[in-house]
Amino acid sequence: MAEGHLVHGAIRGATPYATAQLSRRVRCHQINLLRRSAVDELMRAIKPEWVFHLAAASSPAKSWDDPAGTLHTNLGCQANVLAAASALKTPPALLVVGSGDEYGEQPDHGERAITEEAPLRPLTPYGVSKVGQDLLGLQYFLSLGLPVVRVRPFNHTGPRQLPTFAIPSFARQVARMETGRQPPTLRVGNLDARRDFTDVRDMVRAYRLAIEQGRPGEVYNLGAGQAPTLRQVVELLLPMSRVPITVEVDPARTHAVEVSTYWCDATKFRRLTGWQPAISLDRTLRDTLDYWRLMERN
User: Which tens digit of pLDDT belongs to each residue from 236-262?
Assistant: First the structure.
């Protein structure tokens, strides 16, 4: 918007979520992306230059509860967006957002960072849905020449992420402890898992660079290139608390099927664009904790 672009957003409800904190200059359109006719109509009305397709069921853990629904939502929405975009006289550049979850557990069990050439071995229905989205994007490029750029972002986090994910769950619990709404015990899952965390604000910069500079038909990993354990993340977060906290493993927060390590090699994208994460994990944790402190006061 600062550069004069008109920004449109597709939303499911009548109004955006209050936590979205959208500028009033964003034009929001209530739409069910699973309805092909509605997507066609919206695409014809907007005639966008760029499309960032981010709508999806986004929780690997929750995808086990409704695997068919996850596949239907993630593949169906994207299929309609791709079809509608390809029908325009001047098709837009389109960013298809996959996931590091497409790679699943690699044969080397996390001994090396994952490149785009690694085999796709998803361990969750969510991961399978993202492989499907990835290949749908490639198919529309190969079949119709639609200018699709594909990315596989690894874990990203920050203020306003739902507390069903690890870092906002930790931060929200700390904020609740500080207000006395929760006993001073941080309930966690498997802290030995290693994850490559990027701040969401850095990831959005990467999306913008990908649609501007990425080569249609190509796929790019996006991630910080570091994979701390969740135990190390907790050890960074706890000194930020205003109250003493103990840590306790909650069996309900562990997963029977879980990838041990996600470690991103984004060399291909960095060489193309010069992108580097600018926000440290420490700052991400502080900003996320401050966000939940604000939410718990309201």
Answer: 999 999 999 999 999 988 887 899 999
pTM of the model: 0.95
The one-character DSSP state at 279 is: S
Neighbours of 128 (CB within 10 A): 21
Rama region for 274: left / alpha / beta (φ>0; ψ in -120 to 50; rest): left
Long-range contacts of 83-87 (CB under 8 A, 24+ apart): 83/36, 83/39, 83/40, 84/36, 84/39, 84/40, 84/42, 84/43, 84/44, 85/43, 85/51, 85/146, 86/140, 86/144, 86/146, 87/40, 87/43, 87/44
Strand-pairing partners, residue 219, are: 150
CATH architecture of residue range(s) 8-158+199-224: 3-Layer(aba) Sandwich (3.40)
Exposure letters 47-80 (e unless 16+ CB within 10 A, then b): ebeebbbebbbbebeebeeeeeebbebbbebbbb
Alpha carbon distance 82, 224 (integer Å): 29
DSSP letters spanning 181-214: SS-SEEEES-TT-B---EEHHHHHHHHHHHHHHS
Token pair for residue 222? 């996006």
DSSP assignments along 79-125, one per residue = HHHHHHHHTSSSPPEEEEE--GGGT-S-TTTTSSPBPTTS-----SH
* Rounded CA separation 151/122 (Å): 16
DSSP state of 30: E
| Residue type present at position 210 | A
What's the burial of 84, exposed, middle or buried (CB within 10 Å: 0-12/13-18/19+)? buried
Residue 20 has pLDDT above 80, yes or no: no
Any idea where the domains of the chain sit in the sequence? 8-158+199-224
Q: What is the pLDDT at residue 168?
A: 98
